[in-house]
Amino acid sequence: MKPELPFFHSDIALKNAVRTPAEAKPRFNWRESLPTSPTGAAVPEQANLGPADIADIVGGALTDLLVSRQVAEIFTASNREFVAAVACDVSLHLAHSGVQVSEMQVIQAIEEALVRHNRHDVAKSLNFSFDSRPSLVVVPEVITRLMRRNGQLVPWKQDKIEIAVRNAFLSLELDGAPSERVAAGVTRRIVDLGQSIIGIEEVQDLVQEELMRQGHYKVAQSYILYRAFRSRKREEEATLEALAAEQRLVQEKKDSAEREARAREEAATAERKRQEDEQSRVAAETAKREADVEHRRKFNTEA
Fold first, then answer.
1. What is the pLDDT of residues 49-79, one digit of tens each?
2. Among the four 24, 234, 248, 287, which has the fewest Cβ within 10 Å?
3. How many CA within 13 A on the CB side of residue 111?
4. pLDDT, position 11
5. Phi and psi at residue 198, in whole multiples of 5°?
6. Which of 26-35, 82-91, 138-147, 260-269 has the lowest mean pLDDT?
7. Average model confidence (pLDDT) across the chain
8. Strand pairing category for 153-155 and 145-147
């Protein structure tokens, strides 16, 4: 792994932190970080998200990031100031735009604010949490279905490609805005191919080609290296799983052999006891007959 690409392992830890159930993660009241008298107007009502909600979203993304890094102190004064600054920045930006916005557009605005604050890492954490968002770029209808690595067929979702590409930009501390155009370009190429089914690896090849076609060579290189890293990780995990399965099989055979040996020993013990009981019964009956014979003999003699 190259030193300029240290995010490979941290991305896995971050994904795991994001996927951890909320009840298993620390929870903080980030909205209380906001100043008593906010400096800007509220987010448009259509978004149903005010500065307090935005603070909670930003704080949640920051919490996931710090949990993934095993940071103990999260709800610190500096972190609260940062969350408040981003929430107020987003609120002011949306209020001054004078347009109606959707919830996903608010999320987009939060990501842009995080990039302005040079917190690409928190922006990436946000993307892992909101890994599905509608594209603002018009794309043709796609009938092609995607075949996952497990063989499952699912509908094509351009937003999944956009999030992956966006995170590739953010990992290099670059603005993720071009990701929409890249994802749209990939979608158009899939439509042009006219295939009914396309595999993951083929899609990733198209992403690499589209990144380079649009001039994002550094991101394309990072994406290629990340693919290679993930491929090695999958191979390692598959090897470990195969070894674990083999060990389980060996242990199961050992356990089975031990159970069979115990069963044979128990059967042999039961058989020995049965024979001993039978011998005792025969000996007792023999002794009784002999005693009866001796008793009759004595009785006849005395008579």
1. 788 999 999 999 999 999 999 999 999 999 9
2. 24
3. 27
4. 80
5. -135, 145
6. 138-147
7. 85
8. antiparallel
Phi-psi region of 208 (alpha: psi -120 to 50; beta: other; left: phi over 0): alpha
Query: What are the helix (H) ranges across the chain?
Result: 7-19, 51-68, 77-97, 103-116, 120-129, 158-171, 179-193, 200-213, 217-302
Q: Which residues of 254-263 are buried (b: 16+ CB within 10 A; e: fewer)?
A: eeeeeeeeee
Cα distance from N-terminal residue to C-terminal residue, the chain: 113
Residue 149 DSSP label: T
Radius of gyration for the alpha carbons in the chain, expressed in angstroms and rounded? 36
The helix/strand/coil state of 109 is helix
Contact 133, 142 (CB under 8 A): no
Secondary structure of residue 145 in the 3-state scheme: strand
CA distances 12 to 65, 124, 128, 162, 229, Å, are: 11, 12, 11, 18, 11
What span, in angstroms and rounded, lies between the C-alpha atoms of 255 and 13?
A: 37
Closest CA to 143 of 179, 203, 193, 202: 193
- For residue 177, CA distances in Å to 167, 169, 216, 224 come to 11, 9, 12, 20
Mean predicted confidence (pLDDT) in 184-203: 92
The model's pLDDT over 122-139, given as tens digits with 9 standing for 90+, comes to 999 998 888 655 555 556
**∠ CA 112-170-191, rounded to 5°:** 90
Question: Residue 139: how many CB atoms within 10 A of its CB?
Answer: 17
Q: Which residue has the tokens 């990039």?
A: 115
